[in-house]
Every structure is written in C-alpha cells, then in structure tokens.
C-alpha cells in the first residue's frame, strides 16, 4: 500500500513538473523559422536550447499549463522585409506588437487565423496596399494601430464592437470613413485624404452667438486660469482614485479568503520564474542594461511621490537615467505589462517618454531619460541669494501652459485606457513625468 502511494505521488509531481516546464513546440519552431529568415539590428537572444517562455526577449506565454505563446513584442528591432508569414502559425496570439521596424509590402490577407487577438500594433513601418477586410473577423480586438505606414485605398468597415482604440493616421487612405468608425476621434484618421461623416453643428440663435471681446487676458490671468485648470484635473483624478480604491477594497474583502487558498495551493515553477522578471525596453531606446546594472548604479533621490521615489541612476558605462521605483502598487504581471504598453507609446513634447520597465513580485521600476535642467521647484525656490534671477511672468506662463498641455495629453490617453481596460489603469496618470521646454 505504501509503495502505491509513493508511486502515485511521484507520478503526480512528475506530471506537474512536465506541465510547468513544457515548451510551446510548434510556436517555438515558427519563431525560429521567422528569425532565421529576417535581418534585425538587435540581438533577440532566441536560442532553441533555452526556454522561449522564460528567456526569449519579446515573448510572453500564457499563465495556464498549456504554455502557448500569447504575446509577441518585437518593437524597434530594425526588422526589415515583408510581413513574416511564419507569424501566421502563432494561432493563439492575443497581442502582436511590431511597431517601429522597417517592414514593407502588403499586410496578410487573412487575419482571422488570430481568432483571440486583442491588440494589433503595426504602426511606424512601411506597409503598403489596402487594409484587409478580414480584420473585421477579429471579434476580440480592442486596439488597432496602423498609423505611419503607406497604406492606401478605402477605410474598411470594421464593425468590431470590442474595438476601443483605433489609429489609422498618416497613411494614404481615401474615401469616406464608414459609419461604424465615426465614434473614434478625428485624429485617428488625420494625415489621410478621407471624409468624416458627422452630424451638422446645431444652429445658434442670435442671442446665443458669442460676442467678440477686443480686450485680451493679462499674463497673470492666463497663468491663473491654467493653474486652476490643472488643479481641477488633479482633484478629478483624486476622486476617481478614491472611488476605484474603495471598490477594490470591497472586492478584496469578499474574495480575500478564497484567493489566499488558491495562491497557496497553485504556485508552479513557471510562476516563480516569471516573478524574477527582466528589463523590457521600448521603441527608440538605445539603452542596454539589466536589473543588476540598476542595482549597482550610484543613486541620488530626485523626488518622492504618492506611488514611489524617483532616483537619478548613474550606470557603470556612464549612462545616466531616471528610475521611478513604485511602492504599494498592487497589480498582476499581465495588467502591469498592459499598462506599460499604453504608457510607453505616449509621445508628446511635454511628456517624458518611458524608455523601459521592470516587473517582479517585489520590485517594479520605470526608466526614463534623465534631464539635467532641474525642476520647476528648483527654478522657483533655488538660489535665494542676491545673484538669483527670478522667473519673469512670460517664463512662468510658458511653464504653466507646457504643463497643462502635457497633463491634457496624459488625461486623454488615460481616459482611452480606462475605456479599454476599465479599472485596470487606476495608477496611469501618476506614472507619467511632465517635461517642460524653457
């Protein structure tokens, strides 16, 4: 009897081990075929002897035991050539990110092979030809970005109820935007020769026509308006955070016990491996380092905020970056990566771009360029001596307007992200850094 129990235990644990370390064989072969047929400027470290799910850059597998490749992110790798047909073999993809490469030629005709795809980003390449109508078969698609290519022809009728984010700007599209897509902002179609269907503006009565005023606001008045608007925006954010925080607490109080039980009984070797994490870099980033490099870097505190502390980190290769170390941000790996995808794609002259991020169970980092011009606080309050030159009103107004533009852009992206993932982006506005030009 005892031998049977021991044998059964060995069989069970052996099966669990094999499942935890299983490799997506067909998907892995498709990626190796793909990388063998293209040229790229960065080393993707894809080695058939290593685990695709745990070691390959840009590859994320799902978290259940099937170990299939769910997300492929190859942004800014200098990949050139036609759309890789080998990727069509990855039938279980939920996210495909190929932006900021040098792909050319037409898009594949049949997108329906990716029946579970929710995010498709092929922006900033040189794809041409028409947009395939088969994209409308992606019934789970929530975000589609084909901006900054050379696509032509009519805008297809993409009747996808789940679609929340759309960007077709800066192509060669023509014709009339279909009625199913008029719900998206006009910026999604800018840079094309298309006609937007819209309702005529309401006719104003003579008494409702605003009168023109010859007088202009003074600079102090403009500054007051801008600062007041910024303050109102932050108050709104605070209220939203309070509401979402309370709802999260209510949900945790209901599901806390069952969650703890599941957590204690369903930990696998693959999950422990995922918790170790690695530094993920975004497009246009020429930095190369890992977590150990950041930990060895000499650090100087730049500021402290609600969700963490920002440091100036001087790496051993003389590179200097700004690192935001997040604290008390309770979010899963997949949700965190999805938030970083949105944050990392924000581009605005008054918003510092996110260059890289790191996620593990105990450490969450965001890496930005380091700007040595100082902060607004330093400009206003530093150098109190007689040789101090105070900021004039023109400079102060310029700072306020620049900050307002950056905040407005962040809030726009935040509202889109909230519409896309509902409450998963509650920390999003605080994860950005305003950059000012004087």
From TrEMBL:
One Pfam family it belongs to: PK_Tyr_Ser-Thr
Signal peptide (from-to): 1-22
SUPFAM superfamilies noted in UniProt: L domain-like (SSF52058), Protein kinase-like (PK-like) (SSF56112)
Cellular compartments annotated: Membrane
Domain Protein kinase: 296-438
Alphabetized GO MF terms: ATP binding; protein kinase activity
Protein name: Inactive receptor kinase
Organism the protein comes from: Sesamum radiatum
